[in-house]
Amino acid sequence: MAGTHYLAEARSGYITAMLCVLKHVLIEYGPDCDAHIDAAVRAILEAFPEASLEVAQGLLDDDLLIEARIPLRRAHEWPAVSRIAHAVQFDSRDVPDPEMSIE
Prior knowledge:
Blueprint: E1 4-11, E2 14-28, H1 33-47, E3 52-57, E4 63-71, H2 78-90
Antiparallel strand pairs: 1-2, 2-4, 3-4
Helix pairs in contact: 1-2
């Protein structure tokens, strides 16, 4: 489920706000869980350097979520990035090319 959030930051004495959307990437628990989190985080931050990320408990006891707050104006880019973030968990050599994704 996506939610809307505001991120505020101070620049040159002024506060600017950015409307954000909350998106999730499911991380399955296993022996390489930390490596999967790191790979998914790298994929997300490569596409959305301004994203705010947090690891949270999933619905099941052994699942984790990466909560990504991304700019609303770029939310249309999330499906391709999400596919990459999921793919890197299972085989980093078989990461789909976002340019080749079908929208």
